[in-house]
Predict the 3D structure of the following.
Amino acid sequence: MSIALSGLAGRQPTTLSVGFYNTHLFGSTGKFDGQETGLHFCDDERADQIELKMRHCLPDVFGLCEVWDKAQARRLGCGLLDVYPSQHTGPSAGGIGDLVAHLRRARPRLASLVDHRAADIVKAIGQTRYQEEGRTVGLMKRLKNLVGENTIAWVLHQLAGHPVPWGSGLMLFSRYPMIARFFLKHPKVADYERFAFKGVLGAILQLSPESFVTVMVTHLQEGTSPAAVEARVAQARQILQVSEAISEVTPVVVMGDMNVHADSVLVTGANNIVMGPSAEYDRMFAHVGMIDSYRAVYPHAAQHPGFTYDPTHPMAEAFAGGRVAEPPMRLDLILASKGVEVLKSRVLVDEFRDPQGSFGLSDHHAVGAALSVHPSHPASEQLLQRISHNFYTS
């Protein structure tokens, strides 16, 4: 069910197909002096395959996250320009190399130590397990376990002179013209996401002379620490406030890896498996006037769990430094405001498998939806001013 915007009754809606994918493409940002650090996972080959799969699916609008490497982002953009003439890419950065360069300038004596073990130290800090028994690595691992990721990240950020070696990782592709583009930085971050410039990437699309829609793509804070949960709630609140303001003029679609358990497997004391949303998901999305597209079509999680994260994927194990002790989860969502009716919604598992068909091209599955967008008022300059003082068009 949907609600038409006032003053536009009788005009025909437009069907809009959308897709979203967490690509896990670190590319060159996950290497230091040519050494892989656990972040890089056959990224060049996977980027080529992702482009091919996007061409095959070809929804009207496609959002990507975790395209951290700006060269790979350019490659995807140029490669898809013939089918997606309207594109928007968020801020990018140089990765681990930039981080070490900042450290060399700010703390040269410390940098001399890092130069010899940078790749291993990154693994030790970022991974849940790491088998290397080197002295420096062991120290960093013990510090992480003792004081927590948020404190370690804060100290490193201070020592290196507040670098941001990773950008937003966000891209938005559209077959329809973008009449305005914007990026909003997350208001609060925690843990290692201090080293990224993550936020919300959006554009106002003109579907017809009398139909407009605002599409946003995002990637919320990862982690379960109190600081991570607090940051994620603040980020979700920002998105919902922006969506509420815009939805008075154009319908809104929000896509992204929300990093909140919309549905997961929970094992009780009696070893019963239960499907259902987490309390955090309920707090963030259950009563905000946005429709969870997958649950609008498949209301019963037990019959259609719709998991989008695969903890058994080799990439997940490489990133964590060992077997991942997590259940499958539904993290990647497509949300719709008033003025949008959900027609179909799917998890695109087979569509994004590797050439051998063994695993997906990422440790996440892509998601897609078919939407019916009701006509809306023409977007105005006043609308742009209502989004945020951080709003900018390009």
User: Anything to note?
Assistant: Residues 18 and 178 are 15 Å apart (CA to CA). The longest strand covers residues 14-25. Confidence is low (pLDDT under 50) at residues 1-9, 128-139, 388-394. DSSP finds eleven helices and 17 strands in the chain.
